Amino acid sequence: MMKVTLISHTPEPEKVVAAAAKLCYSPAQIQDIFDGLTDEKTAGFVEMLAEIGHESPIEHASFTFGIEGVSRSLLAQITRHRIGSYSVQSQRYVTEHQFEYVVPPEIEAVPEAKAAFLTAMQQAQQHYETLTDILQNKHFEQMKAQGIDEKTAKRNAQKKAIEDARFVLPNACDTKMIVTMNARSLYNFFSHRCCNRAQWEIRAVADEMLKLVKAVAPNLFKYSGPPCLRGGCPEGKMSCGQMVKVREKYKTL
After folding, report:
1. In this structure, are strands 3-9 and 174-182 parallel, antiparallel, or unpaired?
2. Which of 219, 250, 222, 223 is nearest to 12 (CA)?
3. What is the separation of C-alpha 237 from the centre of its chain, rounded to a whole number of angstroms?
4. How does pLDDT run across 6-27, given as a tens digit for each residue?
C-alpha cells in the first residue's frame, strides 16, 4: 500500500522564504533579516511572491519525503523531475525474495484481469529465482577457480547474479525511495502531477505530498496543484473537462 511521509523540512520554511524576499526588496542586513517577521508579515511576503511570480526565494525551503508501496513504473516518472534528489532501494544489491507489487485499480476491478496479472507476477518471481540460481552457481564456480575463498565467493556470486536476474522483474514491482525537492520544484511537480491527466499512481503520490507540505507551510502552497486552480486549463483538446470538480477537490485537500 502506498505511503508518503514528510521526513524533514527546512525549519520555519515560510519565514526562511520571507527573509529571502525581504533581502531582495529592502535594505535589510543579514544579521537582522528575521527581525520583525511576524506571522502576518511572513504570510504577506509569501503572498507577494505569488502575485508577482518571483519564485527564486522559495527555493530556500526544501522538503524530504519517504515514499513506499509504489511501483518501479512510478520511479521512472518521478525521476523525470530533475531538480530533486532521489535515493532508491536498489534491485542490484537487495534480493527480491517474494517481491511485493502494485496492482493497478483497473486491473483490480476485473476478476479475469486480476487473475491474469497475479499469474504474471508469480511467473516473474519464478523466473527471477531461476535466473538467480543459475547465474549464482556459474559465478560461484568461476570465483572458486580463481582462488577466492568459499564464503566470499558465495556472497559475491549472489550479488553478481541478482544484478542480471533483476531484468526479468516487472514495472509493477514494489519500491521505496527518499525524495527531496525545494518548494519551487514542488510547485512544478504539483502543477504537472496533480492534474487529472497525470497517471493515477503518481497523481495519488503528488496529492499526498501536497497535503503534507500544506500542513507545515499553508501560505507557501496555497495556490499549489493543477494549473486549472489558477486559471484556465492549459491542456487544450486534451483537457479532462472537469475543472469545477477539480477546484472543489483541492479546496478541501
Report:
1. unpaired
2. 219
3. 28
4. 999 999 999 999 999 999 888 8
Task: Tell me the β-bridge partners of 86.
Answer: 179
3-state DSSP of 4-36? EEEEEECCCHHHHHHHHHHHHHCCCCHHHCCCC
Domain boundaries, the chain: 3-88+174-251, 106-168
3-88+174-251 topology per CATH:
Gyrase A; domain 2 (3.30.1360)
The catalytic residue among 72, 166, 184, 193 is 193
Which three cell numbers mark 124?
A: 516473474
Which residues fall within 8 angstroms of residue 84, CB to CB, at 6 or more apart? 78, 179, 180, 181, 185, 189
For 179, the 3-state DSSP assignment is strand
Q: How far from chain centre, in Å, is Cα 34?
A: 32
Instruction: Give me the count of residues in the chain.
Output: 253
* Cα 139–Cα 143–Cα 145 angle in degrees, nearest 5: 120
pLDDT in tens, 166-214: 999 999 999 999 999 999 999 999 999 999 999 999 999 999 999 999 9
Helix (H) or strand (E) holding 43: helix 39-52
Quote the pTM value.
0.92
Is 247 part of the annotated catalytic residue set? no
Give the model confidence (pLDDT) of 62-83 as tens digits: 999 999 999 999 999 999 998 8
- Residues 6+ positions from 32 with CB-CB distance below 8 Å: none
Q: Please give the pLDDT value at position 59.
A: 96
